[in-house]
Each structure stands twice: as C-alpha cells, then as structure tokens.
Amino acid sequence: MSIDDSRDGTHFRSSPTGPAVAPPRKPIDRPAAPLPAAVSRRRLWSVAFFVLLISGVGIRAYRDLARPEAWDYWKDQYVSPSMTSSLIGKVDLGPDRRWPALAIRGPIGPAAANWFRDRIDEAHLVAGDVVLLSSPGGDLNQAAIMGEIIRSRGLVTAVGTAEASGAVKPSYCASACVLVYAGGKTRYGVQGSALGVHRFVTTRASGDPVAETQRIAGAVLGYMTKMGISSSLVEAMSETKDIRWLGPKEVLAMNLVTVPPEGP
User: What is the pTM of this model?
Assistant: First the structure.
C-alpha cells in the first residue's frame, strides 16, 4: 500500500512501511551554450553570400528583361505566341499524297523556333510528314532555325491552309517564311498558293548598315545553298525591298518547289 505525499508542490507516491523515497528532482533549466564565434561567423558569411548571389541574379535578370527584344521573346514564348497550329490527320496534296500534317500560320515571332519544336514533338511527326505553312514572314533568325528543324527531321513542306477533311486551300508564304519552307526535304507546290521574297535589312542599330545588309544576304545565300536552292532566289530577293511574288516557272527553276502542283 502506498500513500500520496506532496512536498514543495510535487506529488509522488511513498510506502508507509518502506524506506523514505525522495521526491524526483526538478530539471534544472540551463541556458543554451553560445555558439562558437567561428560558427557564428560562418553562418553570417553564408547568409551574406546567399543574399549577394540572389541580388546578382536579380540584377542580371532585370538588365536582360529591360531590353525590348527580351520582353518580346518572353511574351512570344509564354504569354501569346504569334503563331497558331493545328494537327491534321491527313492532308491531300494530290493522288497518293496524303500524310499527317502540322498546319502553322501567323507571323514568325522572336520565340517561334522553340514554339515550333514543341508543336512538332506534341504532334509526333515523323520523316515524310507535312508542315503546312501560311505566314507573312517575321523574324529571319527564327525562320532559319525552323527550317533547320524541318530538315533535320526529314519533314516535307507545302504552302496552304487545311480543312478538317484534309482538303488544302491556297495561301501564301512570304519574306522569312520562305526560309521555313526551304527547310522541307521535299517542297510541294499547291495550286493557287504563292511564295514571295524581298531584300532583307537589319532593324538593329548598326554603324555600317550596308555591311550589315551584305552580311545578312551572305547568310541567306549560305542557308539556301545548304537547302539545295539556286542562288538565283537570293538574287531575286536583293532586287526589291517590296514583296515580289514568284511565278510557277520561277520557283521550279530555282528548285524552291521540288514537286509541282497537280492540275492545270
């Protein structure tokens, strides 16, 4: 049998016949030992380094985004892409010419190449499938990258828009869009569609605009040569600052169109 005892406000149980049992001791609150000075300094330097790192990244990001072209790229990539796309099960480019197609339309924006690559991946296009174009042109560098993507994947190109049934309606591909079209391993003609070219000029400030224009012309010539297209196309570009619509015989002679359209 045991009884309750209370001393100093502490309750414990003791036996009336056994030896006295001392009450449990209260834990002694001891102040936490201060961190060594070296540890405190290391933590302080770590925090300071982290703050400086974040500040540096933030300043650099602000400087990058402060440029107008950076905002244009960000908007085109994440907010409102300049181009739109639709996947067509089978487009009809003539007898025995029905393949899956990705139809893209709209101006070629500053982030169009990344957008285009993502759309091709989503569509699961394979070599021989079609990229159907309808565009007034746009960013020259992005257009060249898009053309390289098309060529690297063995895709073919045509100019037009498509209905859900696969019927292709005529459209146009002008300016920088022609570089995208040129990327096709095979380039189909579509009755009534048009290809337009003009002289490319830089919109950036340059100390020597003439030299910059010549540099661009040289880059376009190198690209077209790589794609198997005659240099006469670049000559046609250099002749006018306005859009020049190429005739059916011209595009065949330049090897811009490799398969002429069916029909009259």
Answer: 0.73
Give per-residue pLDDT as tens, 91-137.
999 888 899 999 999 999 999 999 999 999 999 999 999 999 999 99
The span from the CA of 258 to the CA of 252, in Å, is: 7
Number of other CB atoms surrounding residue 222 within 10 Å? 12
- Number of C-beta neighbours around residue 30 at 10 A: 6
Structure token pair of residue 175: 């300016």
Q: Which CATH superfamily is domain 76-253 in?
A: 2-enoyl-CoA Hydratase; Chain A, domain 1 (3.90.226.10)
Which stretch of DSSP H or E encloses residue 219? helix 209-226
Alpha-carbon span 7 to 15, nearest angstrom: 15
Q: Are the C-beta atoms of 160 and 132 separated by less than 8 Å?
A: yes
What's the rounded Cα separation, in Å, for the pair 182 and 174?
A: 12
